[in-house]
Amino acid sequence: MPSPIDFYFDFSSPYSYIASEWIDALAARHGRTVRWHAILLGATFRVSGLKPPVEHPLKREYVLRDFARSARAEGVPFRQPSRFPIATQNAARVFWWLCGSDPARSTAWARACFRAYFGRDVDLSDPEALKALAAEFGLDPQVAEGVWNDPVWKERLKQANEAAIAAGVFGAPFFVIDGEPFWGNDRKAQMERWLSQGPF
Description:
Elements: E1 5-9, H1 14-20, H2 23-29, E2 34-38, H3 41-48, H4 57-74, H5 89-99, H6 103-120, H7 127-137, H8 141-149, H9 151-166, E3 174-177, E4 180-183, H10 188-197
Parallel strand pairs: 1-2
Antiparallel strand pairs: 1-3, 3-4
């Protein structure tokens, strides 16, 4: 059976959100599954010396326009969040907690977080807003809060960041197909070609 496509994302990344809406369908067309990895871009930026594109004055207006345009191109609802970027470690810790027992549910949680933040302007960095989202998702909000404050899940996210960096991940979305890395929502066509034709 072909190996899964590894998909690395940060909940604060608009391009990760857009990619999250097409990656599973792309994989299924080629008989693949997707292994989702919640990470923190801040960890990769510290190693790579990068910073968010909106922090570059010359890039900021362009990327804000491109976020919305890229979402429209994929037919994905998008609303620029009022607070952006935000810290997403709490949502990511809940992701890894769910992933430990039910990867499909962790993927559903990831989609719920993305759609809440980029579709409804739900601030995932606000503990109360995140607890409300957890309840809406069907989790006990107090349990969810306990998870994101638990050293076990803090360490699990740290390990995920370290593993991503070791795999060469420096941004998001980042995909690895049979050892071949692809960075960015705009690599969809290349990924499709690679999966259908092999290396080029």
